[in-house]
Amino acid sequence: MKKTLFAVLLTSAFPFAWADINVGVSVSATGPAASLGIPEKNTIDLLPKTIAGEKINYIVLDDATDPTVATRNIKKFVAENKVDVVIGSTTVPNSLAMTPVAAENETPMISLAGGAAVVEPVDAKRAWVFKTAQNDAHMATAIVQHMSEKKMQTVAYIGFADAYGEGWYKEFAKVAELKQLKVVANERYQRNDTSVTGQILKILAAKPDAVLIGGAGTPAVLPQKTLKEKGYKGVIYQTHGVANNDFLRVGAKDVEGAILPVGPMVVATQLPADNPVKKSALDYVGRYEAAHGKGSVSSFGGHAWDAGVLLGATVPVALKKAKPGTPEFRKALRDALEGVRNLPAAHGIFNLSPQDHQGFDQRARVMAVIENGTWKLIK
What we know:
By secondary structure, the protein is α/β, with parallel strands linked by helices. 41% of the residues lie in helices and 18% in strands. The strands form 4 sheets. It has a 6-stranded mixed sheet, with helices on both faces. Strands 8-7-9-10 form a 4-stranded parallel sheet, sandwiched between helices.
């Protein structure tokens, strides 16, 4: 009886103690984006089980690269699991599908997708959404800069026929125009297509100096493979959406020579000692490879790790204002995310604000080339 009374008094005196924090995680562990979602799912197992003394429960669901399933997942998180925050999804279409549910239920969401449209502009819906993957605009600038330095004048584009492909084209075309780089072809294909011959023939007819493939994961292999089969001799660029080992495995010799922007984590061991991201990047690489084997690390797992880094920095701040499981805690966590400053992560240094829900700068990107089946830093 005394022990019970003591527990009641202690709970009354410290009302924020002993409350679990529930985190809903929706990733594309199957479907066309599985090569991205699997390392993300694996990384969730490496995230902290407690933060500031509070237990963290991760509820992980597969959305099968399907926006409808992703929407169903986040509704389940909110209604049944009473989550305090959501991590996901892997792709831009899935993340966009989840956004209205996060906003309606005032639940912070940390997307792992690359498209800037996930967090821009920060309107009433996106006010609850943050992301860890570099924006397509950020990476497109690096590609155009490289093309400009190599004196290229014309480029063709082929990308996914979805929000990822469209977002990349818009951002790339905008920056290319500023650098007087002419886009001579603009083609699309579906993630599950088995042939892009028609699109590639149109591109070849335009005789571009370079081709940019706006795809992600293993489906981005198909255009490059077809370009090489048809005898294209120009430079082929990919986006940071292909920075995983499955892309290298499936593409093999067909993707050799591709140039792309990547997060520093992808080439962490090749970074100079004074790179500000090297230490935090190597921390994640070491942890992931200890669990899954040398050479197993993926850029996309790094995005999931960085979501954990953000939670590690913001949960203690939110706990000072409210108890987990309440609207007040979710609001405090959202506000704390906007207040993150100079936080080193696997892919860059986070500086978030009410106007910027991604928060990376030029330190979050480097250029790399696929050489001998691996990523080589372009210095």
